[in-house]
Design brief:
The protein is 20% helix and 20% strand. The longest helix is centred in the N-terminal third of the chain and has 24 residues. The protein is an alpha+beta fold and 304 residues long. Strands 3-4-5-9-8-7-6 form a 7-stranded antiparallel sheet. The chain has a 3-stranded antiparallel sheet with strand order 1-2-10. About 22% of the residues have low confidence. It has one domain: 3-Layer(aba) Sandwich (Protein Transport Mog1p, Chain A), CATH 3.40.1000.10. This is Fibronectin attachment protein. It comes from Nonomuraea indica. Keywords: Membrane, Transmembrane, Transmembrane helix.
Length: 304
């Protein structure tokens, strides 16, 4: 009987026999490979499953006057800047300087091809000029080619010197009196009437709209701007138009409902960065002072 063969000892892992530096080196290689693979996945562009299409926004049109540009369907009344305006002669409110209150109109936008002149009531597309907005405004008819002139008198000795607008304007005697100028830079008023916020007013300020190439066009835009200080629904009837020294003058009737005012504007270059504006408005309830309108526009001059 042969002796029993002893059982062979169990095999042991050879990892324990490896030096530790070899194990660490192998682990470092594995980690490096994994990091490289992850980086490659992140770098490669991923194909999106679906592209969400956003709305295409048309470029905005620069505003033409004192304010944001209206949409193409805006009516001329909506084009006119009326925010914060109060009728002439009402009690002054805290409001900014008139140079920043009104929409500043620009007449420098030119079309590549000539466009027909708008008629009152026309809706304007974006990109219109200040004069196109004027012609499309149903509140102001086209100025006749042969509108009458008025006889201007001599300038008075007593004046108010408005150094911000560069203008001197006649200082009228009683019942006129000087008054808090805001939102203008000088102001004279008639006494208040019972039951009405309107009263005669004479005011000056730096031109609140952008001057045009021709002083008559500037005066037309200034007259349109003054409608912001008349009651809503006001419409203009031109009465006189003529040049004055260093500028232009307009006289017009403003009708609102059954009432009206007589008004005038004079745009004069007073040597400042922009022309000066003098305007006067007297309601029909104080029509006895309508004669003062001629005195005012006759005496407006540059301080120079």
């Amino acid at each position: 009987m042969r002796p029993a063969t002893p059982a062979s000892p169990p095999r042991r892992s050879r990892i324990g026999d490896l030096p530790m530096r070899v194990i660490y080196r192998g682990l470092a290689v594995v980690v490096t490979v994994v990091v490289a693979a992850v980086a490659l996945v992140l770098v490669l562009p991923q194909e999106p499953d679906e592209v969400a299409a956003g709305p295409i926004t048309a470029p905005s049109t620069p505003p033409s006057s004192s304010g944001p540009a209206p949409a193409a369907s805006a009516t001329p009344q909506a084009v006119a800047a009326t925010a914060g305006a109060t009728p002439i002669g009402s009690a002054p409110a805290a409001s900014p300087d008139p140079t920043a209150s009104g929409p500043a109109s620009s007449g420098s936008v030119a079309s590549a091809t000539p466009r027909p002149t708008p008629t009152p009531g026309t809706s304007l597309a974006p990109g219109y000029t200040a004069m196109e907005a004027l012609y499309a405004d149903a509140r102001l008819p086209r100025l006749p080619a042969k509108v009458r002139r008025i006889s201007l008198g001599a300038a008075g000795k007593h004046v108010i010197r408005d150094r911000r607008s560069g203008l001197a304007v006649p200082r009228l005697g009683r019942p006129w009196k000087t008054y808090g100028p805001a939102p203008f830079t000088s102001r004279q008023v008639l006494p208040k009437m019972r039951g009405s916020a309107l009263r005669g007013t004479i005011a000056t300020c730096p031109l609140p709209i952008e001057a045009q190439e021709h002083p008559r066009d500037t005066a037309l835009l200034a007259a349109r701007w003054t409608l912001n200080h008349h009651p809503k629904g006001a419409k203009v009837r031109w009465m006189a138009s003529q040049p004055v020294k260093d500028g232009w003058m307009l006289v017009y009737q403003v009708t609102y409902g059954k009432r009206s005012s007589r008004a005038a504007v004079a745009v004069v270059d007073g040597g400042m960065s922009k022309p000066g504006l003098a305007f006067v408005s007297v309601p029909d309830a104080q029509r006895k002072r309508w004669r003062d309108i001629t005195s005012v526009v006759s005496g407006v001059r540059a301080l120079g």
